[in-house]
Design goal:
The chain has 202 residues and is α/β, with parallel strands linked by helices. 53% of the residues lie in helices and 13% in strands. It is built from 9 helices and 5 strands. It has a 5-stranded parallel sheet with strand order 2-3-1-4-5, sandwiched between helices. Helix 1 crosses helix 9 and helix 7 packs across helix 8. The longest helix is centred in the C-terminal third of the chain and has 17 residues. The two termini are 16 Å apart. The site of cytidine-5'-diphosphate has 18 residues, from helix 1, helix 2, helix 4 and helix 8.
Length: 202
C-alpha cells in the first residue's frame, strides 16, 4: 500500500509550502487539491456551469496562470459548496493517492473524506491575521493589486464558507495532528510537519 499523508487546513495556512517540502523530503508525489477547485472556479468565471466544468476538467486547466488570484479563490470556495462538483473531483484525488511509493495531498477534506484511511493526517493552521499577512505578501510579490484588508476579508469569507458548508466541511480529522504555525517560520513549520510524520511512521 502506498504511504499517504494528508494536510488539511484553512486558507493560506502554509499547506502548499509545507506539503511541497514534505513531499520532497520523503520522495513522494504532491497534489494541491485546491488547484482543482480553483480551476473549476476559473471556468465558471468565464461562463461555464459548475458541475459540467468539474466533470470535464482537463490537466491543462490546471496550468491557467490566473488560478492564484483572489477572484478565482473566492469562486473556488463557491463551487466547492456544490456536492456534485466535489464528487466529480473525488476519483482523480483518490487515484493520485494510490500511486507508490507515497503521496502528499493538501486541501480541506483530504483526511476526512478523500483519504480517511491515510497513514498520517496533519491539520495545519494559523491565526487569520497571520495567514492574511502571508498571503498578502505572496500576492504582492506576484504583482497583484491587493490590500491587506482585502486579503484578510477574502481569507475570512472563504474560511466561513468552507467551515459551514454541508458537504465535506473544513474540519480537522479526529486522528489529525494539528500544527499551529502562527509563531513559526516556514522552516520551523516544515520541521514540525516532518517530525509529526516520523513519529507516526514509527
Ligand atoms: O491556497 P489556499 O489555502 O488559499 O486555497 P486552496 O487550497 O487553493 O483552495 C481554494 C478553495 O478551494 C478553498 O477555499 C476551498 O473552498 C476549496 N477547496 C476545497 O473545498 N476542498 C479542497 N480539498 C481544496 C480546496
Amino acid at each position: 500500500m502506498p504511504f499517504t499523508i494528508t494536510i488539511d487546513g484553512p486558507a493560506a495556512a502554509g499547506k502548499g509550502t509545507v506539503s511541497k517540502a514534505v513531499a520532497a523530503h520523503f520522495g513522494f508525489a504532491h497534489l494541491d487539491t485546491g488547484l482543482l477547485y480553483r480551476a473549476v472556479g476559473a471556468k465558471v468565471l468565464t461562463g461555464a456551469e459548475p458541475i459540467a466544468a468539474a466533470q470535464t476538467l482537463q490537466p491543462t486547466d490546471l496550468e491557467n496562470p490566473d488560478l492564484r488570484t483572489q477572484t478565482v479563490a473566492q469562486e473556488a470556495s463557491k463551487v466547492a459548496v456544490i456536492a456534485e462538483v466535489r464528487s466529480a473531483l473525488t476519483d482523480f484525488q483518490r487515484n493520485f493517492a494510490a500511486q507508490g511509493p507515497g503521496s502528499v495531498l493538501d486541501g480541506r477534506d483530504i483526511g476526512t473524506v478523500i483519504c480517511p484511511n491515510a497513514d498520517v493526517k496533519l491539520f495545519v493552521t494559523a491565526s487569520a491575521e497571520t495567514r492574511a499577512d502571508r498571503r498578502y505578501k505572496e500576492l504582492k510579490e506576484r504583482g497583484a493589486d491587493v490590500t491587506s484588508e482585502g486579503v484578510l476579508e477574502d481569507v475570512i469569507a472563504r474560511d466561513t464558507r468552507d467551515r459551514e458548508r454541508a458537504t465535506a466541511p473544513l474540519i480537522a480529522a479526529e486522528d489529525a495532528v494539528t500544527i499551529d504555525t502562527s509563531g513559526m517560520t516556514i522552516e520551523e513549520a516544515v520541521a514540525a510537519a516532518i517530525a509529526a510524520i516520523n513519529a507516526k511512521r514509527g
